[in-house]
Records
---
Amino acid sequence: MAPGKYYLTTAIDYGNAPPHIGHAYEKIAADAVARFHRLRGDEVFFLTGLDEHGNKIERAAQAAGVEPQAYVDEVAARAQQVWGALNISYDGFIRTTDPRHRAAVQGIFARLLAQDDIFKAKYEGMYCRGCEEFKNERDLTDGKICPQHQQPVEFTSEENYVFRLSKYRERLRGHIESHPQFLQPETRRNEILNLLETFPDLSVSRQSVRWGIPVPGDPSQVIYVWIDALSNYLTGIGYGWDDAQFQRWWPADLHLVGKDITKFHAIIWPALLLALDIPLPYQVYGHGFINMAGMKISKTVGNVIDPQDIAAEYGADAIRYFVLREIAFGRDGDFTYETFEARVNADLANNLGNALNRTLTILEKNFAGQVSPRHAAIEGELPRLAEETVAKVVERMEAMALDEAIAAIWTLLDAVNKYIDSTAPWALAKEGKLDELGGVLYAVLEALRIAAILASPYIPTLAAKLWEQLGITTPLAEQRWEALAWGGLAPGTVTRKLGPLYPRIGAELAGAKKKG
Ligand code: MSP
């Protein structure tokens, strides 16, 4: 794949509360993909942001006793702080209350109205205030309870603006069927194709909501959140306010969203784009959910954990590594402090940290920390394994199997540790076989150099620390794919032993957490 441009987005979270670990999971995954593409030499635009309109937000502001705008300003600041703490390298943060976004959304609505893709009609049905959505009876518990909000739906009758989604159904089905990459993972495709069959024309305005973008020419209604929210993917890169920038980045290469909103992204969004005559994104990927010890994350259950707290306590990379490595990407996964601690201790403290530490200690004692020349004859499997790992990482990342890409890097690290055990450098030192010893240490450090580059999208801070200890002076952030060829470590490089890369999480610490 030749380097090119890569535009990816996450869902924009509702601005009713600061992000929790589930929202963080999505942003971490998107960040890993963004960093991976930068490493490969692509020009990347990574967009995230906040979805700030609708009743949910108005109610939260009311409960806090502040105006909705002041409320979302606060949540937006907080969200950006959390993303900063987790090293989320976004290029744009779109807020739906941004005047440029509001104007562009009104423009989109007006255009759809003018071309009769939106029309006014009486819209009635069972309405869930939590979802701000009309519901099909078959999706309700006992025909009247919203399963998501556990509250009864209300019969509602409104004059609404309606989007003729049905007009685009056939084209959309054709697109999904003939572009297997468009909707991933595979498991969500059939479900969406089935849904599409009966997906109704869609109410796209609300009379009962005040906190939103007014319908152009009809201020008694606001534009319903999905047209408002989905349009962020266009307005966040200039649509309506910087056409050159928009043309440069669109179409999106990846919309990464949770499985709960995949249908909006795989049905409503492409139908809107077809109506607007805008090319469709390359891929919509619906990731799974994180649960807390098997339970859904919820305020009522009281199991919401603040990602920033975890980052402050264990380091951003520990939580990044855990969620990316532990959860099979595309499936649901679970967070518990026990599995978190075990995974981080085994992979970061032991596997990665010890390989480096042991090697630098011997290098310091025998060569004053200086890297010896390469000794190809004694490198064994390592060069071949490193090369295979690079290929595997690319292949797995292109398939969005993030966890498997990481697993491949740790397989290489396993081999490095085995290589250390079997070549026994401490014995070589004792026997005075310095030529051989230098070669062994070179091989280990070279494999670690490659692992640092490969791991940098997932654990950027630890990878940079590893890099620093290797003593390489050109920054890790400047490395590109070519740097992954075996033999790149220059003999004579002076390493810098700076102590354990990642100290083991102590038993007392996790014990305290478990108790709450
Ligand atoms: N505002 C809408 C999205 C509009 S996108 C044009 C929304 N917001 S949300 O705050 O409810 O969710 C934001 C994202 O976080 C969604 O992709 C959602 O799937 C994801 N997650 C929310 N809880 C989650 C978990 N427990 N685990 C993983 N992702 C989760 O929907």
---
Amino acid sequence: MLVYRTFKELGEFLDLQKENGAIIGFVPTMGALHQGHLSLLETSKKQCNITLCSIFVNPTQFNNTKDLELYPRTEESDLKMLEAVHCDVAFLPNVEEVYPSGNIASPVNLKGLDKVMEGAFRPGHFDGVVQVVWRFFEEIQPDKAFFGEKDFQQLAIIKRLVKEKNSKIEIIPCPILREKSGLAMSSRNVRLSDSGRSQAAFIYSKLLEAKSASEKQLPAEIVESVKADFALRDTFKLEYFEICDIQFLQPVSSFTTPTRAFLATEIEGVRLIDNIALNY
Ligand code: AMP
């Protein structure tokens, strides 16, 4: 596996590959890799000739400095995991490489997708995401980029970004990978105690309940009942539970369009997000 830390070295390699007609697949991550990330890499490997994984903990998407400080950084084991799945290129730039002249983001009309849920609770988060993803897209110019439905709102925003910029990069959504307990895999899970981790399985059980309830109840009724169930558990600090359409990410009053349930909650001081498709 090749390991690059600058856009220049990476670009020289990619130019050669592109001249030879290679299809380039890009999997952006913040490291502390787990099976969820690896599933994106596997999908890329099936669809592309060269699979490139970036590891960069992007400071501009953290609205909370403590969260940024505590974000797990496990470069050595990440590189071993990437080798083991035969990733072709690992790209690990530092902050100066990604932002040589400060943090200027060019505005993009995200049609309000960045104002709800994660956007509302983490002000500036999606500005940082868009900034870093577009910086990487411009430099790397991959044919395809792979994003997990775990971060469904992010995926919707990246699709919007590519449309807005008239970019030809194909955005490939990948399904959520879960632990046996149902807990969505996340780099943040390592910060949970054993007890926290097993209690966090409650999140998925509530999403599954919402899914089966969507066959007979209205969104508002489901939202109310799930919120009440979370309120009964001291371990959780629920930030939001919403049922939204998948196109505009706006709360719905009936199940007439494809919808998902989305939530964010804190447990043991760790912020977790998850979502599930309801009626499609
Ligand atoms: P992150 O390192 O958390 O920024 O995630 C990098 C990419 O992996 C994003 O596209 C995430 O949506 C995706 N991802 C993270 N966790 C999972 C998971 N459990 N299943 C599928 N994809 C995931």
